[in-house]
Amino acid sequence: FGRINRATLDLLVANGFEVFVPAAQRCCGALLVHAGLPDDSKPLARANAAAFAEVDVVVNNSAGCGCAMREYGELLGDEVGRAFAKKCRDVSEFLAEKGLVATPAQCTARVAYDDPCHLCHGQKVRKQPRELLAQVPGIELVAHARPEDCCGSAGIYNLLQPELASDVGQRKAKALCAAKPDLVATGNPGCMMQIAAHLKAAGSAARVVHPVELLLPEAARSDGSR
């Protein structure tokens, strides 16, 4: 998902923010926590707290990572972890709060937004992605029946319980297909892969994208996509 990291950086710069990408940053440790190894994730958390010590806000584009980093206070149990956690924001939450100054490029498409569990349930971020997507010229936001239901990815659940995860994924795909979207937008890499796989299996031609890809202004688009 390198293209999404690049799109996130370009989107923030286009909207007037100075972006620092510290080379010393590490994995957030979420997958270790999911696997029941929180102690192994603590060195990663401390490295990240140090790497981002001088920035005002830590913006991320992955719901699962963001949820894990917002729990560094509990994970590390000290002021360093709590101070870092307070600075963490999902990119949609941050941009909705600050407001877009760069108009997104035209996108004539039916778009269904699906809530990643770690964003809507874990971080309580629900309305902000929809508010931002509604500002894309030409877009038609379409609702579907189960936007806050898990897609079956769930950290490493789809690896540990593939049959159950597949059943959940099929249910999600069925709800999305009923809305007949051209694009499905969701802000978590595991969700993107899971939903894309089950939409394809269901015969849908809908493409799965990250919201930041739809929010880029025309001048910031490197691939000429719409």
Give an overview in words.
With 226 residues, the chain is of the alpha/beta class. Helix content is 49%, strand content 9%. The chain contains 13 helices and six strands. The strands form two sheets. Strands 4-3-5-6 form a four-stranded parallel beta sheet, with helices on both faces. Strands 1-2 form a two-stranded parallel sheet. Helix 12 (189-201) links the parallel strand 5 (183-185) and strand 6 (207-209). The longest helix is centred in the last third of the chain and has 18 residues, at 162-179. The radius of gyration is 17 Å and the shape is globular. The chain starts with a helix and ends in an 11-residue tail after the last helix. The relative contact order is 0.16. The mean pLDDT is 94.
Précis, in short:
By secondary structure, the chain is of the alpha/beta class. The protein has 13 helices and 6 strands. It has a 4-stranded parallel sheet with strand order 4-3-5-6, with helices on both faces. Strands 1-2 form a two-stranded parallel ribbon.
Name the features.
single chain, 226 residues, alpha/beta, four-stranded parallel β-sheet, two-stranded parallel sheet, 13 helices, 49% helix
